[in-house]
Amino acid sequence: MHPTALTTEAELDDRLSDPPAEVVESLARLDGDLIILGAGGKMGPSLAVMAQRASDLAGSRRRVIAVSRFSGGSDQPLRDRGITTVACDLSDERAVSGLPDAPLIVFMAGRKFGSTGDEATTWAMNTYLPALVCRRYGQCRIVVFSTGNVYGLVPVGGGGSREADTPRPSGEYAMSCLGRERVCEYFSRRSGTPVALFRLNYACDLRYGVLVDLAHQILRGEPVDLAMGYFNTIWQGDANAMALRALEHASSPPWVVNATGPETLSVRSVAERLARRLGRTVGFTGTESDTALLSDARLGIERLGPLRVSAEALVEWVADWVDHGGKVLGKPTHFESRDGSF
Ligand SMILES: NC(=O)c1ccc[n+]([C@@H]2O[C@H](COP(=O)([O-])OP(=O)(O)OC[C@H]3O[C@@H](n4cnc5c(N)ncnc54)[C@H](OP(=O)(O)O)[C@@H]3O)[C@@H](O)[C@H]2O)c1
């Protein structure tokens, strides 16, 4: 039996930001305000609301402060939830120096798409901007969003990359993400800043994610490419919870953790299942390669779990959501890219 399917955006947003008891307890052990940098994207709003709800449940007077340019839309929904918002371009050093003080930081700003052809902007966003943040908030606990792309492709069936594995990033996006990690590690080691490097693989919130990409390809009648034949994904609510709990684990030198679901999912099987649920047929091109972008989820789940939504439930939710015409962001993951071009 799966947890009840979600039918409205209000239900979805509520579920994505519902703090598990572990988050309430973890944040209650930490003092002071929390700043979320780059809060205006796909994950930031629900993560900010989860932090606010957890703090309210604990009876804490913590302020949750969401910082972003808010280029994608109004900050009003966040303010309606009691979150303080600050419009700021984090590449502007003066603006960063004027941001509020707080002991807890979640750093989510980054650039992926559009990297090919404008590599310099991606490097600036993913390495220069974190340096500004580490200098500004050198005395704080910082969770830095990173990506499983820093590992590169690994053999399918090997259990996925582990945190201690040597990174082998492919393409300039992944290289710049490793650059972000190294810059943060440098400041952490130099100044003793507690940092957690949070290597996320494919959050899914029903409005975007690998499963949503596949469902829409099926609806459009497009064949699904099997070359990247396997993937990991995680319910975005679980990823939010893990990121907030990672604050407690931040250390110098940085603590590195993978954040993804425990299942190695087959593109072929998931697409067939989605197609059945959507009453469609699915065609395929190519064949599965013997490598894929996969991460070992065990450490993250052991320290920051348990996860509340299985991949099986997520597939059902996505099928229902897409079937009833639920809103999608139109931001494909391009998970099928094998050469690291984005
Ligand atoms: N979602 C995933 O599955 C996934 C997987 C692996 C890694 N990640 C990484 O995790 C982080 C959060 O994910 P996400 O999906 O929420 O990313 P996202 O949708 O790209 O959101 C990041 C937000 O950061 C803000 N930002 C960018 N440049 C900024 C600047 N100069 N100043 C202030 N704000 C800036 C942008 O919002 P404004 O326009 O409001 O400024 C942007 O929407 C990102 O770094 C992403 O690359 C995500």
Give a quick precis of the structure.
The protein has 342 residues and is α/β, with parallel strands linked by helices. The protein has helices spanning 9-16, 21-28, 44-57, 76-80, 93-97, 119-136, 172-191, 210-219, 236-249, 267-278, 298-304, 311-323; strands spanning 34-37, 64-68, 84-87, 104-107, 141-147, 154-155, 195-200, 203-204, 224-225, 230-231, 234-235, 255-259, 265-266, 284-285, 291-292.
> What does the overall shape look like?
globular
Helix/strand order: HHEHEHEHEHEEHEEHEEEHEEHEEHH
Return Rg in Å.
19 Å
Q: How would a crystallographer describe the biggest sheet?
A: 7 strands, parallel
Task: Count the E strands.
Answer: 15
Q: What ligands are attached or bound here?
A: NADP nicotinamide-adenine-dinucleotide phosphate
Query: Which blocks of ≥5 consecutive residues have pLDDT under 50?
Result: none
In round numbers, the mean pLDDT is 96
In terms of structural class, how would the helical and strand content be classed?
alpha/beta
Distance between the termini: 38 Å
Question: Notable features of this structure?
Answer:
two-stranded antiparallel sheet; binds NADP nicotinamide-adenine-dinucleotide phosphate; 12 helices; alpha/beta; 342 residues; 15 strands
